[in-house]
Amino acid sequence: MKHLLSMADAKDEVFEILSIAEDLKSGKIGGKPLEDKYLGMIFEKSSTRTRVSFEVGINQLGGTGLYLSSKDLQLNRGEPISDTARVLSRFLDCIMLRSKSHETAQQLAKYSSVPVISGLTDKEHPCQAFADLLTIKEYKGSFDDLKLVFVGDGNNVCNSLLLACAYVGMDMTVACPEGYEPDKQIYELAVKEAKETDSTITVEHDLDKAVEGADILYTDVWVSMGDEDELEERQCVFKQYQINQELLDKANKDAIVMHCLPAIRGQEITDDVMTSDASAIWDEAENRLHAQKAILYKILVE
Asked: Which long-range contacts (CB under 8 A, 24 or more apart) does 232-237 make?
């Protein structure tokens, strides 16, 4: 795995990265393994968890993180991404990109001689998926016989989760309105991979049917960055696709609730569920740090 732009890039290393994350979190792996390593972090989109977790993570591992706003780079003046990639590769050991377009991340990786990590694109969010898997493992012990139900828009987070669940052998159902299904190509790949791990990947438009037997209820905002012009339409379409106590009661008794954040309380999730005993959201947010560190460790040390 030279680059991590998609969960597919880590197909054969998912369990190894999760193991590294556990060892880093517990202190089993200590020291400063990334001493004298430099991570450039390019942001085209605003961020809280991605920026802080990568910046803190690289520093905890002994390296240095540099925040690079796209507005401050020559990219903002029209420099080709290929030229930026070639130049930054001479200065840095790794590049993290949070981009509006997945194609931009692919171009950066194509012309970069150092590893490129996606901190989110419009197509996928693999770093979030690793934090999610780590959280589920902590709460449930393993991925065997588990069912995750993603409630809402089949967006970038959903896309990466489809592949993540397929690779670890966990069932996943996407409960979404018609017309808001996940990426077709990624969905088909996940279905194919799930057959190899004896798990199932499905899309269900009936929310009540979808949550039957759910061990994990997961949601994200109805309006992702870049979809703001669809605000009113999406609020109308998704109004029934909310994780609330009534929905949680239809899942398994020990079901947990997850959200990648930021959350719009009262829309995709209610305040009482976010702060309930079923909520794993805050541990999930913390695990962004440990997952990011594991990814950096895997790419730059091993």
From this structure: 234/153, 235/267, 237/177, 237/179, 237/180
